[in-house]
Amino acid sequence: LAMRSFSALCSIATGPVTFLSTRILLGWPRALLAACLVAANPLVVWYGTEARGYAFSLLLTVVAAGFLLRGLSSWRVWHWGMFVIAAILAVYAQLAALLVIAAFGLASLLHPDALSRWRRLGAVAVLVAAGTAPLVLTVAINAPGAVSWAADNTVGRLITTVTEALPPVLYLALVCLTIGIPLVAAWAVLTRVDLR
After folding, report:
1. CB neighbourhood size of 38 (10 A)
2. Residue in 169, 167, 87 with CA at minimum distance from that of residue 131
């Protein structure tokens, strides 16, 4: 029961968070309807009864969507930073959330100001990619059967070759540099460049 309590709380919280996230886009009557539909959704209820990360990932994805909408309307760094944190946590809770976060990125390109603020959107994309890269690399290295589909392409062969050829300490340093340099550069762009 204790293990399922967290999922139940996340499932219950998804309704109000949906209201708060969609209110900026839909107005409060439609946001209330969206929250009621989420609360009555059988899958949300079912995920709330399981002792897995589905309900937590759903909650974090809705939180990320809310900060994405606020970020696109105000272009404030704080909203984008919270979007990055929620998106990364959603992916760590459930790897499939990466597809939803990628869809958020593609949808944000449809925003009228996307072309004039491409640096900020690019910085956010790099931050999310850098934050989720350790999980993707860990899954690729420790569970090769889970990513066997990638072994036949060039990137998969390159990762396999590098992980087998380098000593673990050197490989860890390479991963830190590969993730750290774009992460620092993206954060610098996100916090210092005002594109208004």
Report:
1. 20
2. 87
Half-sphere exposure (Cβ direction) of 63: Cα atoms closer than 13 Å: 21
**Distances from the Cα of 105 to the Cα of 5, 79, 178, angstroms:** 32, 15, 21
- pLDDT tens for residues 67-101? 888 888 887 888 888 888 888 888 888 878 888 88
Q: CA-CA distance, 86 to 67, in Å (whole number)? A: 8
Q: What is the pLDDT of residues 96-129, one digit of tens each?
A: 888 888 888 888 877 777 767 777 777 777 778 7
Residue with tokens 């790099």: 126
Q: Tell me the residue length of the chain.
A: 196
Q: Which amino acid is at 57?
A: S
Angle at 23 between CA 19 and CA 26, to 5 degrees: 115
